[in-house]
Amino acid sequence: MKIRFTNAKILTSEGIVCGELWTKDDKIYSIGSGLDDETADVTIDAADKLIFTGFKNAHTHSAMTFLRSYAEDLPLKNWLFDKVFPAEAKLTEDDVYYFTKLAILEYLSAGTNACFDMYYFKEAIAKATVDTGFRMVLVGGSNDLNEDTSVKLKEIESDFKKFNAYSPNVSYKMGFHAEYTCSEKFLRGVGEIAEAIKLPVYTHNSETKAEVVDCLKRTGYTPTQYLNSLSIFNYGGGAFHGIYLDHTDMKIFREKGLYLVTNPCSNLKLSSGVAPLYRYRKNGIKRIAIGTDGPASNNALDMFRETYLALVLQKTKTENAAESSCEEVLKYATVNGAKAMGLDASSELAVGNNADLVVVDLNAPNMRPLNNPLNSLVLAASPKNVELTMVAGKILYNKGQYFVGEDVESIYENVEKRVSRIKKSLNG
Ligand SMILES: [Zn+2]
Questions:
Q1: How far from the centroid of its chain's Cα atoms is residue 267's Cα?
Q2: Which residue of 67, 119, 141, 179 is surrounded by the most CB atoms within 10 Å?
Q3: How far is the CA of 59 from the centre of ligand 1 (A)?
Q4: What are phi and psi of 291, to 5 degrees?
């Protein structure tokens, strides 16, 4: 199957190329002046459109769509322990399948075509991914708060094998929920597996001030230093949130090549703070990516909003409007996000890479005049400008229509039915 986009503005690592982009099956086949001797199965006129690689959401909990706008304006601890955890305890595998599908609809309509997803019931997430044609990298999110440590460690090894062989659209990276929900025995075990198979490890890290203070009291180390002392990061990996890193933490990030995944909306709504990306950059941390976090703590799965905030918060924090740039944060939201989750072949539009792309309509009031489409993509655009989203050469979203193997109405109906059941059982 060859799909040809004509008259397009194509955002590549060398800047905007005007011309044609061809995909062949699941790969990008040609970028530039076009292929005179070949015939395409589908031709799409992309005049006044910008094609970019699409957002790579480097930290999310997709199935938490079921908690969107369910409990708001509460202190973090009450929100988590009184609302989120009791509701999550009612989840079934099928619930997670449908709640993930709902998230995928939102990702597609908002220009995101790959996610780094941490949640329970990984088989259901993988199935929702394959059934819709989406692309997910699953990351381990377990803890051993209520379960046997050795069982949870075995689960990591079996998940690693299972989901890396599941489908070309699904892969798995090693991870755990956070140092404060895991025993030292469990974390040592994670470190041993990472050492043995030479794997990067990802986790929530330094999201709140209280988390860091507590870890210092308990272990004598910050979370980053504590995990590093347990050989967790010897083969890289990363931190979700990473708001409160000191100089030694930053040195570890630099030396171990760790990714820092920032989640501005979630951090602002839950009053956690603002990650000082400008300071990290100055201290040599170049591997910065962006995620939405889960829709309970955000509440949208909108990488336009995250990317915008990741930029303007740095300008505000430094009181310097020249701090950072659109080009830089767009790199965090695309190339770096893809690389953080091991999707190098989806990181940018280039021949031979995965045919993962997003078409943005420039023929809209908020995108005119065409002074600088890249700047407008970061500072002016929103999901309403997304016209088409492609994953692995398949068009999954086009002009408001979804092509995900199930009617949207049926997905909504299943979601509402399951949310009603969960709420009823919580109230009864
Ligand atoms: Zn999270």
A1: 15
A2: 179
A3: 6
A4: -140, 170
Segment 197-255, tens digit of pLDDT: 999 999 999 999 999 999 999 999 999 999 999 999 999 999 999 999 999 999 999 99
Distance 242 CA to ligand 1 centre (A): 11
- Output b/e per residue, 101-131; b: 16+ Cβ within 10 A: bbbbbbbbbbbbbbbbbbbebbebbbbbbbe
8 CA → ligand 1 middle, Å:
36
pLDDT for the residue 427: 84
Residues sharing a CB contact under 8 Å with residue 360, sequence separation 6 or more, in sequence order: 49, 50, 51, 52, 111, 367, 377, 381, 385, 386, 387
User: How far is the C-alpha of 374 from the C-alpha of 379, rounded, in Å?
Assistant: 9
Coil/strand/helix, residue 51: strand
* Secondary structure (3-state) at 287: coil
The alpha carbon of 266 and the centre of ligand 1 are apart by a number of angstroms equal to 9
- pLDDT tens per residue, range 172-183: 999 999 999 999
Cα of 230 from ligand 1 centre, angstroms: 22
Quote the ligand 1 centre to 53 CA distance (angstroms).
24
pLDDT tens digits, residue range 356-390? 999 999 999 999 999 999 999 999 999 999 999 99
Ion ligand 1 neighbours, Cβ < 5 Å: 293
Residue 104: C-alpha distances to residues 29, 100, 137, 158, 165 (Å): 26, 6, 13, 26, 21
Q: Is 196 exposed, middle or buried (0-12, 13-18, 19+ CB in 10 A)?
A: exposed
Give residue 380's region: left, alpha or beta (phi > 0; psi -120 to 50): alpha
* Selection from 85, 75, 82 nearest residue 272 by Cα: 75
